[in-house]
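re: ur question from earlier - yeah i can do the single chain one, its not a big deal. heres the input i used so u can compare w yours
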Amino acid sequence: MSNADEIEDSSAPLIEHLAELRTRLIRAALAFIIGMVICFSVGRYILDFLLIPIEDTMRDLGNPNPVMQYTAPQEYFFTLIRISMVGGLALSFPVIGYQLWRFVAPGLYKAEKNAFLPFLIASPLLFLLGAAFAQFVVVPLAMAFFLGFADLPSMVAAYVAGTEGAEVAAGTDRGIDIVFNGKVNETLDITLKMIVAFGVCFQLPVLLTLMGKAGLTSAAGLRSVRKYAVVGILTVAALVTPPDVTTQAILFVVVYGLYEISIFLVAWVERKREADLRAQGLWFEDDEDEEPEAAADAADAFDPEAAADDPLLKEFEEDDEDGEDDKPA
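and the output i got, formated as tokens:
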């Protein structure tokens, strides 16, 4: 076989893999576009759903007719585009994950397939759980904090002067009324950031457990860097959440709880792997654990009296003494 034939034979699998990759990417892109079109067609209803937290907060603060506005002609259209992109990605993720699995699965062993598939299923479920937690718990608290803080002077005035005094004060000509005129894109920006941030943070158990299964981390290692993890989680909470203590504290508590759960899952993976290796007779204790025991046994076995009676040691001692006597003064 000539060198040209060998080059052609070695390049054929690469061409096949590239063609397979192109097919999977095209199918994933088509699924994303279809999901984006579906979300854009019902974008108004999705937007109303995402604005429920601020609507409820405004109604609780005494606004019977909450209104949001946009100040540029193209603002509402691009707001729907943003919603469609995020919703299309969420809607098409099962198809995208399936295409990724079909591309990777032929190169995996059966045990690796069984190990990887649960994580592929758990990842979107945890993202949806984090997004739901942000939408129904965190975003309402953030909106109540910001809008309630702006409305705090009027609430204090009503509490001090009474309802009638507050109504009289509201009807005077002095002062300037500060009201909230919310913009759609700015409010939606906060909501989407919180949803994506919590959805991504809820992937922490999946990531660390997968790393533990691959042998890249261990439960003992995660416990040893716990204090650094606390600092990192606080930093991430300060960066991805609005500048209020409430949402930062909630994100920190949730992510740190997920970190502790990840330690438990990694320890469970390690125990399961050890049990499987022991069942197969392939588990061996570490040398570091054996070395101290061997050193202790050697120390216990050493007998000075027996060493003094050893003729071989005596011969070495006599040679050393003769060598010292032969040295010039």
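Residues 59 and 65 are 7 Å apart (CA to CA). not sure if urs matches, ping me
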